[in-house]
Amino acid sequence: MARMRHPNIVSFLGLCALPPCILTEYCSQGSLCDVLRAACTDSAKAAGMTWQLRLRMALDAATGMLYLHRMKPPIIHRDLKSPNLLVDEHYRTKQSTGSAAANNPIWLAPEVLQGHPATAASDVYSFGLVLWEVLSWQLPWARTPPFEVWRKVVNGERPPVPALSELPGPDTHAFSGLGAYLQLMRECWAQDPNVRPTFADICSPSSALKKGGGAAPPAQEQKIDSAAFPCVGIPEGAPLDAGAADLAADVENRLRLHRQGSLAGSVPRHYVGSVDYELAPGSLRSAKEIFPASLGDKAAHNFLSEAVVRSLPKALSTAERERVLASTPLSPTLNLLSSMPLDRVNSRTSEGARLRRHVLRGAVVVFITAGYSSKRFIFERAKELGVRSVVIDGPDSWSRHLVTEGVVEKFVGLDMGDADTVFDRCLDACHKIKKEMGDLDGITCFCELAVPLASRLCERLGLPTNSPQAVDSARDKHATRAVMEEAGLPTPRNMLITSRDVLERAADHVGFPAVIKPIHGAASLGVLRVDSKESLAAAYDKVCEELAATIIENGVVRQATPEELAKAKSKGLSANCLMEEYLDGPEVDVDLVFSQGEPVYGAVTDNWPTIEPYFNETGSNSPSILPSYQQRELLELAVKSCKSLGLQIGVFHVEGKYTSRGPRLIEVNCRMGGGPVRTMNLLAWGVDLVEEQLLASAGIPSRPNVAARPLRNIAEYSVNALKTGTLKDLAVLDKYKGRPDVLYANPLVETPCKVVCAQDGLPTWVCEVMVSRGNIHEAIEYVKQIEQEVQQAMDIE
Fold it and tell me: Does the record bear Transit peptide in its keywords (predicted)?
């Protein structure tokens, strides 16, 4: 059960040995059987039982079964019936546990009653009986003895279908899809299992459950460009066309090159010895940069901090911005672009990609901070594209060595310690770079704290950028909520908490369960779920303590060690928190590329359940397994959210959930996502977010040549410690090296080391694994299997 993750499967939360029991999510409406029987006796509930709702609940049940049948190996429910279908407070229907010993003849298929094993087709038969219940609001064979039920079913009899005049429901007489519904019901309970539909048929767009008014929106309501968002409605198994085959070959070639070093970060072995401090290993989530003790307090001068962000100047006025643009000549890149046929440059073809890369080659691009050393792949890709890269970072940054290696052209060391002067000194550095290397084509960054600084530098220099107002609103979660609410977009109830004094008002306004989070931040630090007013004060204190012990290093947010707490004040996050309602449902990442104010690429990646109450990430998969209409709604909300904030160009990492009330936003990040985000978009869809961000920073139109179906099916797992103690080693990872379907299996800690589980604090990420398989469900099962093997092999004392 713990391996099952789907919005229409009851979530497994834990188990208890004494007394023996399991813990699952709570579904407040009880079972589907309870809901239908209540409608028979309660006129108010009967009035709400429209056919739209009934079809949606039936489709939910079928969607959950489709997920089970598509698992590897397939899971046969054996006990599908209305008492085992649970309904939550928003009337979402979820499959609960079946039983290998199921023996109630009411829902059992005739072949099972005759002693044959249960199959996928026998589950479909049981679903046909559920459809009869949804139709009649009655229990099948209610007044028939069990043996008589057995005889009738084996002989081909079924529960009688009531006359139209006897059917319940407020809109049954006006329901035009009743005939198709009855036909589907009869097909499901057909005597011959070989002629029954599959759950893939039942959930298809042409099914009576959808054509009759189910949850999926009509096709004409699609508002997104299929060329930009091909992940919606993928024709499974469709062959690659010639263009897509070229794209796949290019991605596979890059994958082979990266595996010579490390796909995750490509810090080569010889590189570590060339610096005088310890680097992060070649891993996507690692963030360990340890400067020598001899630097003392100077180490803090190497990192951007919230103090720098707070000291930044206000955005220019419209008139000031227009004066800057009027006095700024076209950059060399834009001059070249203006001489080229824009229809070909803007095409989503191999030729279009070649022309855009031709324009980008030779561009002078300034990077505001390098991030931690595992972001090296960004600069390697820029080098491959012919970009003349300049890095402005702390004087002791690991990135200074990229100059001697020929990866970047220039490094500018800038003391970050004097927060109030960082902006002016950065601007001076840009002017000097311009004199030395020629006109700048763009300024960019891949680190959260650097985004406000980079946008203001671009504004002063007349370079392509998102406005500082848009960037600031996106970084401030409370401001984001206000902007979205003003734009009429769905917004969770929320309230800004500045002190303990407002906790009671926040509790009354937001309600429970709720989440407390810092208005700025990353990596789930300071994010905590709270379930009652009684626990709110303690939870708020805990978040404040965690924020006070938070430090930021090279764009990485992490908790300070006890020794670092004394230095945390100069780098700590703001104590202002946002309290907002807890969002149920599956969490996703939506990665977007905007060009000239419009979205040109978007893909949904499923995020797996986090480690609560801290919301520590676990795993993800691409392509998404959510229904295509849910992906479409998530994409539309992500796009509208970015537009409402005023974002125009670049790569955005949008986090959201598909809740029981539809899609909801968690946050918008005005940068490429960290961790495996770039890798997953590249391998699944052939879109390199690094390249797209570089194009945007130089003002070059972006029209990525997106694969029409996934090039690879990717699943990854960030393994969290399940026990607090000392982890001796991670030798278990060695056996996965060299496997063609394991793209990487990297440690995230150096052993032996102390690790923490969720019961004792923010869990420790121990290692990360990424796999690729023939279909996405196989990939998900495979990486979860590896995670279990790693957990069993880890020796924590």
Answer: no
Q: Kindly list the averaged pLDDT for each block of 10 residues, start to end, along the chain of length 797.
A: 72 74 83 92 89 92 91 88 90 74 78 92 96 94 82 91 89 87 94 94 84 43 61 44 56 52 41 48 53 60 88 92 83 87 90 95 97 92 98 94 96 94 98 97 96 98 96 94 92 89 91 86 69 89 75 52 55 68 91 94 92 76 90 94 97 94 93 94 95 97 91 94 93 93 92 90 89 95 96 93
Q: Is 127 exposed, middle or buried (0-12, 13-18, 19+ CB in 10 A)?
A: buried
CA dist 371 and 554 (Å) reads 5
Q: Which CATH class is domain 12-216?
A: mainly alpha
Q: How far apart are CA 677 and CA 589, in angstroms?
A: 9
362 phi, psi to nearest 5 deg: 90, -5
User: Is CATH 3.30.1490.20 what the domain over 493-582 is classified as, yes or no?
Assistant: yes
How is 638-652 classified by DSSP, letter by letter? HHHHHHHHT--SEEE
The dihedral region occupied by 553, where left means phi > 0, alpha psi between -120 and 50, and beta the remainder, is: beta
Q: E strand or H helix at 40, and its extent?
A: helix 32-41
Residue with tokens 């699952």: 24
CB atoms within 10 A of CB 502: 16
Q: Does domain 228-260+477-487+583-711 have CATH number 1.10.472.10?
A: no
